[in-house]
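Dear colleagues,

I hope this message finds you well. In preparation for our joint manuscript, I am sending the Thiol-disulfide isomerase or thioredoxin (Pedobacter nyackensis) sequence together with its predicted structure, so that both groups work from identical material. I would be grateful if you could confirm receipt.
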Amino acid sequence: MKLKYIGLAAILLIAQTVIGIAQTKSSIGYTLTGTVKGIANGEVVLNEYNAKTRMSTKVNTGKLRNGKFVMKGKLSGPKMMSLSFKPGNWGTQIFMENAAISVKVDTAGAQHYDYTKYGSDKGAMLKNVKVTGSTSHADFIGYEIKTKGGKGKEEIFNAQLNYIRPFIAKNPSSVAGIYMLSNHYMFNSGIPLTDLEKLMVTFSGAAKESVYFSNIMQDIDERRAVLPGNYAEDFTLLQGDSTKFTLSSTRGKYVMIDFWASWCKPCREAIPHWKEVYAKYKDKGFEIVSVTNDSRWNDWIKAMDVEQMPWIQTIDEFPVKNMPARVVSKYKHGTIPLYVLLDKEGKILVKSGNEEDIDHKLAEIFKN
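The corresponding structure tokens are as follows:
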């Protein structure tokens, strides 16, 4: 009997030890220790930026004393953050994670900027920064080093994908991996949807739980929603005389939504062509609805006075500061001009930046 009790006690002791270790590991946060050359005393701020909302959230603050600081906290998972030092607004990026991380900063050689005339701030991007202790940071720096040096956008994008694909295949749960793809996608939103979907199914674990994964998945859902065959989302916008126009009022006609802007050179160069198309098909049940991406009303009015477009003219809305216009952003194209051809019921037939794609479909529709 005593042996049974001893055995039971041993099992309980082992179980408690395992639980204690698990609790200790789960309670570990981060300790960020830093030294700064060029700033003796001031404030250190750690911010998290969400590219989807374009908003920054303050995560932690600390005091800089005699060029040194320490920050402690806990994260839900690895995240790319900005670290800034004041006075002077000196900034850098650091991939934070729950670990003991050290950063050494030298303000010498920093790149200064001043965006105050655009309603933003001024400061300096630090160039002399060394981070140790963060596996995610080391992985991302490796990616940046290996993918720099391309001569053009296409070459850079190809180099990035050629690095990302094997990296995430080998490290599917890496948050640094999904961040690499998120960073790439931010500047290459034209990547084919099927290619992006294939990359996304690779991820697992912490990578799938990250905001970078959920942001891309949301974008994929939004891109699927505007594929040909889907109904175009209805919208109401102002016309030049300040009256309201609603897209669904054109039901019963084939409609091309023309996303353009007064400052867009290729948009304006295409106008003579669309005048010819409009004259050819307007009496056969065809309409054009132009939606300008101008944020300044007067610029739009002046352009319309010059171009004399004989179809419906509306102006997009910018309800959230520093965010894309409301209607055009729904179509996930990234650039203008963008042309969206709808059938009589309001379903999307063609979504393209090329005039020829619209021309071919219209010729097919009105061939009789």
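For the figure legend, we might mention the following. DSSP finds eleven helices and 17 strands in the chain. The first strand starts at residue 30 and ends at 37.

With kind regards,
E.M.
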